[in-house]
Structure formats: C-alpha cells, structure tokens
Design brief:
Layout: H1 2-17, H2 25-44, H3 49-71, H4 75-82, H5 95-104, H6 107-123, H7 125-130, H8 134-145, H9 148-158, H10 177-193, H11 202-210, H12 219-251, H13 257-304, H14 312-323, H15 334-351, H16 353-364, H17 371-375
Helix pairs in contact: 1-2, 1-9, 2-13, 3-4, 3-5, 3-9, 4-6, 5-13, 6-10, 6-12, 6-13, 10-12, 11-13, 12-13, 13-14, 13-15, 14-15, 14-16, 15-16
Length: 380
C-alpha cells in the first residue's frame, strides 16, 4: 500500500513539475488538461514494475538533458541536446511518456526564445531596463518554468549524483554571433533615434547613419540570419519527429488513446507557436535592420537632391545600396515593405525606367546581395 502511494507521488512529481515553457493559452490549456487527466490516470492505471523502471530511467535521461541545455551558452546547441531524448520504440505510450515527450520536444522553442529575448533587448529599451540583463531574465524563466530542477535534484541524489545549480547558467558569451548582432543593432537603433523624422540637416543624418551602416552589410547580421536558418530547420525536424511518433504509436495496440490525443495536440500547438515565434524573429532579424537601412538611403536621397542640380553619383550609389534590400521583402513586416517601396519609387522617378533597371541589375552583382543565403530560407 505504501509502495503504491510512493509510486503515485513519484509520478505526480514527474508530471506536475516537468512542464513546458508557456507563452500563450494553448500551451497552458494543453498542460492543464494533461494534469487533470493524469490525476485520474494514476488512480486507476495498473503500472507494472518494468514500466515504472523505464519511467525513472527516462526521467533521469531528460534531467541530464536539462542540465546540458542550461549549462550551454549557445542558442542552437540547446536544440541538439533535446534531440538526444529518444526512448526505445517498444516503450508503451502512456501519459507519463507523453509528458516527457512534451518537455523534450520543445528544445527548438527554448532556443528561439533565447534568441528573441536577446534581440528584444536591442530594440525595446524599456524591456531591457525592466529585466536588467537578458541572461538574468532567462535564468528566472528557466527557474520558473523548470521547477523540474527540484525533482531532478532529488532524483539524482538518490543515486549518489549531484544535480547542477541552475543559477550558474550563462545565457550567451561575448563571442556568440547573436550577442554581437544585438550589440550592432543597439548602436544602429540609438543612431536612428537621434535623427528626428523631419530632419533639416540631411548631411548630418547621413554621417550619423554612415558610422553604423556601411555599404557592406555587417557580417554579424549575416551570421545571425544563418542562425535563423537553423531555427527553421530544427522546427521542421521537430514536427517530423512528432509526426513519426504519432504514426508509430497509433499503430501500437497498447498505446493509450489519451496519450495519442496529447501528441496530436502538441503537434498542432507547436505549429502555432512556430508561426508566432517566427514572426517575432523576423521582426528583429529582417524588418528592423532593413528599416534602418531604408532610412539611411532615404537620407542620402535627400542630401543628394539639390534645388538646381543633383549629386547624381551619390544618388546612384544610394539607389544601388537600397536595391540590395529587395531580397529581404518576403520576410518583412508589410509596413516596412511599404516604406522600402516608397523610397525605391523616389529613385525610379529620379532616374527613369531604363537607368533604374540598370541600377537594379548592378545591385544584384554585388557580393552583399546574399542570394545564396535567402535560397536556404523558407518564406513565412
């Protein structure tokens, strides 16, 4: 009798403490429904000793993955750790295993949130001040959403092992490409905020932008966009894995229907979360930098425009540089696209159809067009 009660407590701790990073109601609803059904499940299910042992082994494995992820300071390295959680296919799909899958399959989301939190700090000054340092904020996030740390600590101590201290976790170091990108984006944002919308000293505006936005696109921007391609690839892998799991367990006669239903819901919710997260990442990785570059080229246009004659060389160079932003359009917010096209029309009207077509062609031949990079991306 006592053993059964201890086993119930053991399973409750696993299921109630290991939970997903919650960002919206659909995650919360799924978690609450699973918790409710599990309470009924542990009252009625007869779990054999072999399955109990498997539950313990898998939980230990996931605890070690949490530890690896929390110690890592590289955003997409976290994903690779969570990919290590792959139980043997002959394990029965019950609510315990489903809950463990629920936690392990969100590695892509944890990583993308690490990325978006850092990017948010570059643009949203008030948010940055509120959370002081991004790494401290994310440690708090881990501590709040990974109360599993408490359980993992107890579990590993039972076997003579010491669990990690989550407060030693470091989000990113100064060598990380995302950290460098955030630093660059902050400088550009500060420069942009110094220039009023209706600026009179156009040459001053051009100099201000020129100091942070050279004609050659920043390497840190390219490196971070490459990280974004990894985010897209990892999400696709996660969805494929969920689909494979659902198909496999659906064919097994001993799979529990409730557990299958939660896997199905998880797959749909992951897709919804991906779209929201992808929109947020594109805002910071594409829309903001392109808007800043557009503002710069617009300032150059105004500075090169004269009452009697224009500085055609300066204006042509600005038009070429602006045209380099065209491949970004599928990833931009619609308002940014409108601003970009409005400025492009200014140049087109100034040069005429034929000469502007030559300008566009010339821009495509420049090494900073990044055509190969965009081929690797999946438009939203």
């Amino acid at each position: 009798m006592i053993q059964n009660k201890l086993h119930r407590i053991f399973l409750l701790v696993i299921l109630l403490l290991i939970h997903p990073v919650i960002m919206a109601d659909d995650w919360r609803d799924l978690y609450n429904d699973l918790e409710k059904d599990f309470l009924e499940y542990v009252d009625t299910a007869k779990i054999d000793e072999v399955t109990k042992k498997k539950h313990t082994e898998l939980t230990e494995r996931l605890c070690k993955i949490h530890e690896q992820g929390a110690k890592s300071n590289k955003v997409f390295e976290v994903m690779s750790y969570y990919e290590q959680f792959d139980p043997e296919p002959d394990i029965k799909l019950d609510l315990v295993l489903t809950k463990l899958w629920f936690d392990a399959l969100k590695g892509w989301y944890i990583s993308s949130k690490m990325l978006s939190d850092n990017l948010k700090s570059a643009i949203n000054i008030e948010w940055s001040r509120e959370h002081n340092k991004t790494k401290d904020y994310f440690v708090n996030e881990l501590n709040n959403h990974y109360s599993t740390v408490i359980y993992c600590d107890k579990l590993l101590k039972q076997s003579g092992k010491k669990y990690f201290n989550i407060r030693n976790f470091k989000l990113l170091d100064k060598h990380d490409p995302i950290t460098k990108y955030v630093s660059w984006l902050k400088r550009v944002n500060i420069a942009n905020n110094r220039i009023p919308d209706n600026y009179d000293d156009t040459k001053m505006a051009v100099r201000t932008y020129q100091n942070v936005l050279p004609d050659s696109f920043s390497d840190v921007w390219l490196n971070t966009i490459m990280e974004y391609t990894d985010f897209q690839k990892e999400f696709i892998k996660t969805q494929e894995k969920l689909e494979q799991l659902f198909s496999f367990y659906k064919k097994q006669k001993n799979s529990e229907l409730q557990a299958l239903e939660y896997l199905r819901r998880l797959k749909n919710i992951q897709l919804s979360k991906y779209k929201k997260q992808d929109k947020l990442l594109r805002k910071y990785l594409f829309s903001w930098p392109v808007l800043f570059y557009r503002n710069y080229r617009n300032a150059q246009y105004r500075a090169a425009s004269g009452l009697i004659w224009d500085d055609k060389d300066a204006m042509r160079n600005a038009a070429i540089q602006l045209s380099k932003l065209t491949p970004f359009i599928p990833y931009l917010h619609e308002e940014v696209v409108k601003h970009l096209m409005k400025t492009q029309r200014k140049f087109k009207d100034k040069f005429g159809e034929k000469e502007y077509a030559d300008i566009v062609t010339e821009s495509k031949l420049l090494p900073n067009n990044w055509a190969d990079v965009f081929k690797k991306l999946t438009p939203p």
